[in-house]
Amino acid sequence: MSTKTIAFLGATGGCGLSALRRAVAAGHTCIALCRTPSKLAAQFPDRPANLILREGNAHDVAAVAACLSHPADPARLVDAVNFSIGGTVNMTKLTMDDPDVCKKGIAALLDAIAAVRAEERGGTTWRPLVAVVSTTGISQHGRDVPLLFVPFYHYALHVPHEDKKVAEQRLFDSGERFVIVRPSLLVDGEKPDRAIRVHVEGPQGIERKEVGYFISRDDVGRWMFENLLQKAGGGCEYEGKAVGLTW
């Protein structure tokens, strides 16, 4: 499989860092945008040459656009964008430090893609695969979480879920190539021997139903790398769909 150029927004921890580690190890050129590059650099003490760190905010269109081309060749645009930015949930006040973090991030990314495309650096037909971490509990086609979790999701996570709903809808309306990844409740610790079940929703409804309680951040990142980022050039069966991941 040929090496790719992949932009990472929100890779200093969690699912994004898991996907980034694997992409770097596989030899892909990885461009990571972060507000504090030193924080991410500490995760890669060997300083791999195929990891490029850019300082900036994922809500800044210009900063995002600067990450959408190969650093050695501006005409070579990224094959994929891994989007996993998020905010901190305040469980006491049932809100977030930034209630609009995802909707603003997706808006900036879509505007950045449009801006780069308008420059015709990679031709007007350039369409990278956008892989986005969202959440279960916001499906429009039926319950995708265990019944026991419904009250918690409805009340405690209402604010972040409303943010992600808007972000998802912007993707569905965009005409871009994308896959929305909706993990179950996230925990730490990879379990490579534990099967990952995949729930699939297309524009017309549920195509494959899987409901579960938990999945680890590391396993989500691994699945995204293996099933989305490595197949960004074509052959990804989940394009234009939302997939739920659970153990």
TrEMBL record:
Q: Where is the NAD(P)-binding domain?
A: 10-228
Task: Tell me the domain of life.
Answer: Eukaryota
InterPro entries, per the entry: NAD(P)-bd_dom, NAD(P)-bd_dom_sf, Polyketide_Oxido-like
- Where does this protein have coiled-coil stretches? none
PANTHER family, A to Z:
FLAVIN REDUCTASE (NADPH)
Q: Which family does it belong to?
A: Belongs to the avfA family.
The name on file for this protein is NAD(P)-binding domain-containing protein
Species for this entry: Purpureocillium lilacinum (Paecilomyces lilacinus)
Taxonomic lineage per UniProt? Eukaryota, Fungi, Dikarya, Ascomycota, Pezizomycotina
